[in-house]
Structure formats: structure tokens, C-alpha cells
Amino acid sequence: MILYTPQIQRRPEKRKVRVSAGRNRRTTLIALLKIMALLVAVFLVATGHVLCKSEVERLNRRALRLESDINSLGRKVANLQIRREEHMGKHILEQVRNLGIALRYPVAGQVRSIRASRRIEDLQDIGNPGEILLTRR
Hints:
Helix content is 64%, strand content 0%. The chain is mainly α.
């Protein structure tokens, strides 16, 4: 016995193609979005790196400028100290003359020069190197 069925319901091939084409488009779009997101992230990281580098360079230039200013101010201070000492020395000699104090310059045997056996940098750990006391016993 053979059954004859004149009509078999089958899904049309076009519909299968459309579903798979829709899925392919969706996966392609998702992959494209992932790639775009990765490229955007790389671009943002590169831009941030360039901005940080430019900020570092700007700060380095400013530091050099400030260091130059500090050095020039140090030279000015040293020059002003020298001028102050010159003026104070003149005033001291004037006062000695005005008061009539019998002072004279030291004899060569009265002046002693002392050499430190260690460098000043080595004395930093024992205290203030400006407070060196010399006594004669």
C-alpha cells in the first residue's frame, strides 16, 4: 500500500536563506562593533599618552625656567651680601676712627689658617658644620 500525499508542507528555501542572512548580518555587525570599540580604546589610550607626555614636557620646561630663576636670584643674593660686607666694613672702620680706638691690622704670626681634614659634606652627619669652635689652651 502506497500512500499518496499530493501536498507536503515544506518551508520555502528563501525563508531559510533570510534567517541565516539575518544571523550573518547580525554577527558581522557585532564583530564590526567589537573591532570599532577596540580601535576607539586604542585611540583613547594613545591620545591620553600624548597628553601626558606633553604635560610632562611642559612641566620640565617650567622646572628648568624656575631653576634658572633660582640660580640668578642666588647670584643676586651673593652679590648683595658682598656689597653689604663692603658697606659694613667701611662703617666699622669709620667707627674705629671716630671712637679713636687704637686698633691695627694683625701681625703675620697672629693669623692662623686651619684646614679641615674632612670635607664639609662629610660633616653634615655630625651636626651643623658652621658651629665649629676653636679654643687656645
